[in-house]
Amino acid sequence: AQSVTQLDSQVPVFEEAPVELRCNYSSSVSVYLFWYVQYPNQGLQLLLKYLSGSTLVKGINGFEAEFNKSQTSFHLRKPSVHISDTAEYFCAVSLTGGGNKLTFGTGTQLKVEL
Amino acid sequence: NAGVTQTPKFQVLKTGQSMTLQCAQDMNHEYMSWYRQDPGMGLRLIHYSVGAGITDQGEVPNGYNVSRSTTEDFPLRLLSAAPSQTSVYFCASSKTGQAKNIQYFGAGTRLSVL
Lengths: 114, 114
What we know:
- Chain A has strands spanning 3-5, 10-14, 19-21, 24-26, 31-38, 44-50, 56-58, 64-68, 73-78, 87-95, 103-104, 108-113.
- With 114 residues, chain A is mostly beta strands.
- The radius of gyration of chain A is 14 Å and the shape is globular.
- The relative contact order of chain A is 0.33.
- With 114 residues, chain B is an all-beta fold.
- In chain B, the strands form two sheets. In chain B, strands 2, 4, 5, 6, 9, 10 and 11 form a seven-stranded mixed β-sheet that branches. A four-stranded antiparallel β-sheet of chain B has the order 1-3-8-7, with no helix packed on it.
- The model of chain B has no long low-confidence stretch (mean pLDDT 94).
- Chains A and B meet through strand 5, strand 6, strand 10 and strand 11 of A and strand 4, strand 5 and strand 9 of B.
């Protein structure tokens, strides 16, 4: 079975600083990878996804992620964060041949401070 | 364009009571699913449906029933609520059941079982 690990439950960062949110996955078969963001009291919305091709994926709001197959990682980065980026971020995977069932990590709370 | 609509937004139940969480989407999506979100555990799949008349169990189906009589609606039923079902419930939909499709989430239902 597949699994997703987000080692950092909380990441505090000052505004305009860079940030990296880590995600590692485990699967015996190939996967698709996603990052979702959840703003306070809202549902989840897609930030970006990796299906195939270029390992560097750009998403909304200036975020990007890099797929590293050898390290089974899909870390999320932003070069300069804003207060409005304060939210919870979830990494998720689905099996390429397994239907649209997402397996989520436990989430990382990003808190941007002035 | 309403997207995925969940009702109610908040609910308090007593142990043993039953209720139905409603989910409707107006995007003509074939695939719909229910997740529960608990602190430190991310989102876990409860049930899903790949089309009208077809449902299947996810990771944590016990205590929940679903049906899919129309493409638009996918209600989640709690037959006899238990405190362990206190959680935030999210409904999601995607165009098809293919693993690469983006899932669109509702705003959630916050349920407390006393």
